[in-house]
Amino acid sequence: ARQQLAEWMRAAGLHVYEDAVGNLFGRLRGLDDTRTILTGSHLDTVKLGGKFDGALGILASLVALQALHKHLGPPQRSLEVVALCEEENSRFHARYWGTRAILGLIEESQLEALRDEQDISIASAMRAAGLHPDQYRAAIRTDLDAFLELHIEQGRILFDEHIDIGIVQAITGLQHLLITVKGRADHAGTTPMDLRRDALQGAALMAVEITRLVQQEGRPAVVTLGQWDVRPGAVNVVPAEVRFSIDLRHPDAGTLQRLSVAIQARCQAIAQERDLLLSSEIIGQSAPQQMDPALQALLIRAAGACGATWKAMPSGAGHDSQTMARHLPTAMLFVPSIEGRSHSAAEETPLADAARGATVLATALSLLAYP
After folding, report:
1. Which of 14, 21, 224, 251 is the most exposed place for a label (fewest CB within 10 A)?
2. Dihedral pair phi/psi, residue 235, rounded to 5°
3. Residue 313 near residue 160 (C-beta atoms within 8 A)
4. Of 245, 262, 286, which marks where a domain is finished?
């Protein structure tokens, strides 16, 4: 895939190169070749995933640069399409690795500390791919003025509302919590229902209440209770301990924290009512990230110029733009996903929607690089 992409970049008249960590670039040199506007997305995908997540953003960026080069010639500032590596966490716990390398956020210790299921370090994997992990700092960029990313929505809002383009206002923040509920193991046949300290019954009530609280908050708040561990896990024993995960998301930091506090308080109340012990631990979190207002306005202008309908909306998933936006002006646009399917072989975006998105992206890049 990388070789094919590099060939397409060269055919489009771009200067192709790879950095020390595996990001692939195609550069359209500008009259001022000291400053760069970057566009693109990630090349990797999840296991058994679809063919549009990340890849469509790269191809749309490539098509956009090819069209601008053909019709407008060299830009004032250089334009680059990038195929970013390791966004998905599929092999190593190295999410946004390519983006973090560009921004100088990789720590040397991570090169050996980050390992896959076969205990292979990311440094070893990089060397096997012909890369140079010891030169990772050479990937740092100081010439970037902006980053624009086209991506499939991975949800069904645009699809259901028949809207062409989503203009991302903010990328959601999230909290991952681990809830542990402890009761007492007893005989399933000889322990009356009113005398049980059943950890699973308590956890089930918590799940219902967590869902109710988030549904009451309304969109764009979402919660998922995706992992459960019931012990001892026997058919004839009252469950003594349950652990379950909470994935809580909202694009507003204050709302995210308020919901987290409310959820933990309600779980504690249920535990006390049922004579159970409860502990909660935040095992992961990321803050919401706003997109650049001026670049959002630019995308809206570009959508209007292309006759595309648009909707301002948050992103419920994390993206490379989330990390980029903390360090340079960044904006993101979505194209529809059929029935909202993603991270699945059923993932699909109609060709007409993809082409429209690429046209809006090209228009926005022209406004930035051809003033």
Report:
1. 224
2. -65, -25
3. no
4. 286
